[in-house]
Amino acid sequence: MLFNEKVLAGLGKGVGTSGKLNEGSVREALAALTRFRQLIAQSGTTETYVLATAAARDAKNGPSFLADVERLTGVPVRLLSGHEEALLSAYGIISGFYRPDGVAGDLGGGSLELVDIRGETIGEGKTYPLGGLRLSEAAEGNIKRAEKIAQDLLETSDVLRTVEGRDFYAVGGTWRSLARLHMFQTNYPLHVMHQYEITAGDAIDFCRTVARGDLETLPRIEVVSKARRALLPFGAAVLEQILRIGRPKRVVLSALGVREGHLYDLLSPQERAEDPLIAAAAELNTLRARSPAHGRELVPWTAQVFQALNVDETDNEARLREAACHLADIGWRAHPDYRGEQSLNIISNASFVGVDHPGRAYLALANYYRHVGLIEDALGPGISRLASTRLKDRAKLLGAAFRVAYILSAAMPGIIGRIPVVNRGGRIVLSLPRDLAALDGDRVQRRLKQLAKLGGLDATVEVVS
User: Are 427 and 458 in contact (CB under 8 A)?
Assistant: First the structure.
């Protein structure tokens, strides 16, 4: 994403009661679109898409508003049906999660869309008039009444019946604000919203506190913008009912929604099939590493090392290792004393999708160990506590493998692919071709033995003809 701007015009305000778009909201929306048109013109954009959702779909004066938008922007407006809105929300989840399995809920100002997702298979989507603005007006600002409205509409939901024991993917600004408040109240160490997770039980308790409490006295409420606060209790009320009725195992936040789903819908099948995490890591490798080819060579070489150490990997762990190989040299321009720290911060806070927070921790820690060594004295407890013991152990192994690879190759391509590492009789053996025999030395042997020791093995270097 090259530029992003959002204006909360509140188009859904009053639609539920008057049946019309609010005049003030319309003026604000058209003023924002006037600015957006100028930004589009000066950016050199060649294709522009304008999408309209529930408020314009349901309002009596929706057609006249959309006509004004088309005159202003010079672009035909695509008015999404409830089904299309749910479908694009689902595409947003598919584009940004690894093998998603659950129900996506997209909460806007006018409506809530629910849709079942299993990998790339999308179930039938359903729309409910539970958007924050519409619900607050229907309940006349009474949160208990809002809870009852949400319960009555959702308790017969066919979609929610499928989510028990699976994930609920929460999409929309109100729910992101709710999660941001939870994140700061719990002193969570990583301020990345995408794939932030809350167990269902904790989320129910938190939603009840936000919905029923005095909003302005909530700890850390200042982290939520004032424009979002008024609808926060109503978003909490809807989420609580979803969790009580559907009984998912956890809430997973998504930074991607209808807009990203629309872009995903435009991609070719080949582009859709790409792994977004690997694509992003490979791009950083190209932009920042001394030799992008060397990063690519690390992928099969580290797989060989893990095999020699008898380290098993799940499919997800293998793709994390691949991404880590692309990222292994992105910090080389920093001062040597700060390469580990800087790389850890860049990777853990990068604008990646397709990776959960434990996975981010794995990527960051592997790079940290590659630069700093296998010590943790300078490593704060923050990012480290997000990874499981299994992932931390594998990050340390990968970091140790990187330390061997880079001292052999000096980050140049065409070397490590010629230096196999195998397990021979319970011993790790690194084989140097005779023309590379001069690479052997005390530091290489120490690092190799350090790597082997992590797997409970001994190690040796041999020169072969």
Answer: yes
